[in-house]
Amino acid sequence: MYKGTKVIDVHGHLSTPQEFANYSSSLLHLRKYDGRLQMSDEALEVTARRHLTVMDERNIDLQLLSNRPVHMWHWETPEVQEAWCQAVNDTIAQKVRLHPDRFAGMAQLPQNVDTDTSNCVAELERCVKEYGFVGAIVNPDPGADHKAPGMQYEYWYPLYKKAEELQTTLMIHASIWRDPRLKGVPHNYQINNFIGQFMATLALENSTVFDTFPNLKIFVCHCGGALNRFAPEDTVHVYGNAPLGKNLMFDTCAYDADFLALAIKQRGADRFLFGTEAPGSGGRAIRKSTGRPSDDLVPVIDSFDFLTEDQKLDIINRNAHKFFPLLKEVREPALAR
């Protein structure tokens, strides 16, 4: 909680037992597509308890769960993708069923660089109608080779159309990039997160996507990748300042407080959703100013004196309610505006 208000984290990923990894290995190495992944509630609950402990330590009340991007396997064959997406989404649904007051689902889609996104429509609809998922995670570079069309192209339109129809929010999160120039760079997939998400931001901000789909809702993870390095008064060199708050938003999943503060200042508090990715990479470092893990972002947001109390509540709770039409979590009457 934050001063009596529930904290909604839109950027969370699955924590799973060994059976989950074993199933992915059977798909990738043995090419066995028959049979569904079967995990007991007891096995999944062990990881859920650890996950919930991390959330409690960071004052997170509700977290939206998606698969971890490095485990999405979009660059694999369609047969692998179909089976893997089903297994991932079934697991997310199982975890939400075990803790419906703490988790909500974000679907993985069977993306493939060699086909447009029409093959994602059925799985998105299944997850929304059968499991009550509130959104889906979308990889802007499913081939891990930067050959997929930019997010302003009609390649993405079947998914955009179905997401708009279902009132489903899309979460743009890049995954790995198989670029030989990054050989030897530790955690080089993080570089692709930055590049892929920034390119998606630029493509969407400078496109007619939201004219074609006026009710489509998309947010880009990690503050949208990069920030604008030009002066706010510069009307020629502008990146990240397009007035698209109704349709395009960003999350707060950035662990350098100065970077996060500048991102909010540049793009506006009304365009930010609270996100931590906890438990994840942000828990490995201890922030000197707080003595807490760097992904403990509630006190960081609270410390930003350039934000009003209303803006802090918007980021931590209200914006999520506005941007996720399918989110069923009860809104406190005190938050009505």
Question: Layout of helices and strands, plus pairs?
Answer:
Blueprint: E1 8-13, H1 18-29, H2 41-57, E2 62-66, H3 78-98, E3 103-107, H4 121-131, E4 135-138, H5 157-166, E5 169-172, H6 189-205, H7 209-212, E6 218-220, E7 248-251, H8 257-267, E8 272-273, H9 298-303, H10 309-323
Short description:
By secondary structure, the chain is α/β, with parallel strands linked by helices. The protein is 37% helix and 10% strand. The model is unreliable at 330-337 (pLDDT under 50).
- CA-atom Rg in angstroms: 19 Å
* Secondary-structure-derived class: alpha/beta
User: Could you please say which CATH topology applies here?
Assistant: TIM Barrel
The string of secondary-structure elements, in order, is EHHEHEHEHEHHEEHEHH
Largest sheet, in brief, is:
8 strands, parallel
Largest beta sheet: what is the strand line-up? 1-2-3-4-5-6-7-8
Portion in beta strands: 5-15%
Low-confidence stretches: 330-337
Strand tally is 8
Q: What coarse outline follows from CA principal-axis ratios?
A: globular
Number of helices: 10
CATH superfamily: Metal-dependent hydrolases
- Average pLDDT number: 90
The CATH class, by name, is Alpha Beta
Kindly give the count of domains: 1
- The percent of residues in helical segments reads 25-40%
Question: Termini distance?
Answer: 19 Å
* CATH architecture type: Alpha-Beta Barrel
